[in-house]
Every structure is written in C-alpha cells, then in structure tokens.
Amino acid sequence: MVISRRVGAVLVAATVTLSLGATPASATGHGHGGAGTPGAPGVGDGYFPAAGNGGYDVLHYGLEIRYEPTSRAFAGVATVSARATDRLSRFNLDLRGFEVRSVTVDGRAARYDRDGQELRISPKYGLSRGERFTVVVRYDGTTGRPTDIEGALYGWVSTPDGSFVANEPEGASTWYPVNDHPTDKASYDFRITVPAGKTAVANGELVEQRTKNGWTTFVWRARDPMASYLSTASVGDYDLRRSTGPRGLPIIDAVDRDLGPDAADGLARTREMIEYFSDLFGRYPFTSYGAIVDDDEDAGYALETQTRPIYSGPPSEGTVAHELAHQWYGNSVSPARWQEIWLNEGFASYAEWLWEEHSGGRTAQARFDTNYARPETASFWNPPPGDPGATNLFAGSVYTKGAMTLHALRTKIGDKAFFALLRSWYSANRDGTVTTADFVRLAEKVSKRQLDGFFQTWLYTPGKPTAW
Ligand SMILES: [Zn+2]
C-alpha cells in the first residue's frame, strides 16, 4: 500500500441491512462426520482477533456478483470450496452487512446465523477432518463506503461511477463471505455483471466478456494462490489496455476514461521494472499483471491487489515500483499475522529506493542518510516497525524505518549476502506466509552472522537506532 491521503471516517459506514438468518443454528451435527466441534471465529491474529476462522482451508472462491452503481444494488452468489482441517459441527465465514438469502453445504440447505462479522454455518451433517466441501451463499444488499480500524475507506467502496475495491487488512468481508486472513490463500474466479458501458476489473486474466440485455458480464480468473486482502473487483468507466511484459507476461491495465491523457504515465516503465525486479528477486510470481487507475481520490491510496494494483488516482513511477515489488514481498510471500506488516511495507519501500537508484536517481544510501539525519526526537522513528499496533499498520515508520532496516542489514552483511537473502526469502516462501522470526533465521543462515541484536534494535526498539 502507498498512502497519499488518508481520509477520516466522516462518511457513513456500509448502509447495508443486517439481518439474522431465518433459522437459528445449533452446535450439533449428526452424520458421517460425527458430532465434531464448532470452528473458531478467528485464526488467532493478535491485531485482528475476528479475522479469518478456524477449522478449514479454502481452496477456491467462485464469486458471482451483479452490481448496479447508481442504486448501489449488489447481489452475490459465493461458491467456496474448502477442506476441513478439524472435525466440525459448525464453521464460520466472515461477512459484514448484506442480507443472507440461503446457505448450502454440498448442495444441502444449512442452518446459519449472524453475529457481527461472523456468518455461522451448521451443515446438515458434520464434516470430517480432511473432508472437502462446497458452501454456496446467496446474499444481497446495498453497498456503502466501509472504513477500517483507522477510519480509512476500504473493502467495497461505492463510488459515483462504480466501486473502488481494496481490502487490506480485513475488508474482503465487506463484499463476500470469506476466510478473511492471509494465512488462507486460495484461487479465485470472478463473474461480475454490470450495466453495459461499465467495466469490471478483477485479479488475473479476463477470460470472457459478454453483453446481453443491457448488462455486461466480465469473467476474470486468478489461478495463483491469493490472500483475501489482495482480491479486487473494481467497477468503473475503465478502458482496458493490453500489452505484453517479459517472457510474454500478459499485462492488462484499466484506466479511468475521465482521467487526463497523462493518467497512465507512471505505468510507462512497468515492463522494465518487472525485468529489473525479476533479476533481483527471482521470476515474477504470477500469471499476469496490470494496473487499475481510478479517479476516486477520496480513497487516497494505492494497494498492491494481486496481479493488478489499484490506484485511487494517477500514480507516480515510484508508487508503481512499490506496488510491483509487493507482488514478490507481500503477495507471494505474505504476512502470517498483521503484526508482520513491515515484511510487506519495508520491503516494497526499499524496492522503490532500489528502482530509483537503478533508474539514475538518488541512491539507496543517500535516501538512508537523509532519513537517518532526522533528530532523535522526531516522531518519524516510532512506532517500531516490528510491532506497530493494529491502528498503526500504515505508519510512516513501518515503511521508512522498515526500508532503513533492510539497508542497514545490507551494509552490515554485504551486498552478496543481502541480495542472496532477498532471493532465498522469495524462493523459499513462494505462495506462503511468514514471520519476522523466519526472516531473522534465514538472514543469519545466509550471512553466517548472529543478527538478533540487530533486528531487536531496528524493529522492536522505539526511537532512533544509534548502534547496530
Ligand atoms: Zn505498500
């Protein structure tokens, strides 16, 4: 993510109607799966305890959405294919707002109820550990402009011309029933129907586009494992522009028609950037790339939505480099809990420095020095990037002190070990989730140095580091 302007929560939250499911659920289940126990209502993330759910692993989401921007009417059918990791009498999906019309598990009506963001589902028969199952949830409502814990717009944000959809950290539940935590990645299919003339853009590749009776359906397929916060389905007055990246990589950009002719200037060097980062970090992780350039400055930020970063307005070249670098660090190698956010933002910010140096601008050393010159009393040094707190995920220190941590590490262990470390960090953890402890272990292994004191100083100690 790159923030240009965070807007306070002055707008009404989602105007969707909340209602309880028709039939109360109970915690009993009888059948081939045995009684089992209810799955946990969260995965145990200390910053966002209600995010995600226990007891199963989602393999695939099939999301069918019909959306009319003027009335904000939204109707969804979510088909969630999963595998039970426990014996379950009941399990939860995260879903905020909307009216749930029906829930089936493996084709049979299931009992369900709602409790805040938890949609609790009791299949007719319990689920055995290891059993694969398919949940279909039909839901509808009117979308709004939801905000995150800091009051910034996120999730399915209705805009005058459609929607700006960016979910970090746990806003996917504002538009589909989901196991909303990066530890549960899945593949996705999107079938989005919008009034003819509008364009719907999601992750992956556009595999079908058909107009009938005044509505256009866009089918997007995202085959690579993806964390829910990186999914998008943005709707607007976009032109789709196709080009080709290195090794034939399909690039599909969506640029809002209402923006000026220079709206996509920041994207001009995308191909070169992919080549540069692929040389540095390892092969580009996914099956396609591109950008969504919107005209919704209210959101005031960019997010590295997988394969297709979304920008609330025309991005700078530096921001484009940042969101591209996240495809490796953040999207393919993802945080196992939100406390580890610096593994996303510190890395993407440092990659932005590397790109600037590569393209003839300031060196990474110069940027480190400029930042390091700030006084000890500057608020810049806090909170510590390794544990910023749930309301400071996007604090400046997470980005800049995080990037400085990597530069300081580079000067401590040398270029050879440092760039080998960046490559191994990616190759060893592709499509996975990681913690800082994993990074420290790998850094020590690659450099053959003891580094716990170094990381303690840079990541967990408040204030300006003076010796490391
Ligand atoms: Zn970022």
Overview of this protein structure:
The protein has 468 residues and is of the alpha+beta class. Residues 6-31 have low confidence and may be disordered. Strand 11 (155-159) and strand 12 (162-166) form a beta hairpin. 22% of the residues lie in helices and 30% in strands. The chain has helices at residues 270-281, 317-325, 342-358, 364-372, 396-413, 415-429, 436-447, 452-460; strands at residues 2-3, 37-38, 56-68, 73-84, 88-94, 99-105, 108-109, 111-115, 118-122, 132-142, 155-159, 162-166, 186-195, 199-202, 205-212, 215-226, 233-236, 238-244, 250-256, 292-293, 301-303, 310-311, 333-335, 432-434. It starts with a strand and ends in an 8-residue tail after the last helix. The protein folds into two domains: 2-327, Immunoglobulin-like (Sandwich); 335-460, Neutral Protease, domain 2. The radius of gyration is 22 Å and the shape is globular. Strands 7-6-10-4-3-13-16-15 form an eight-stranded mixed sheet, with no helix packed on it. The chain is built from eight helices and 24 strands. The site of zinc ion (ZN) has 8 residues, from helix 3.
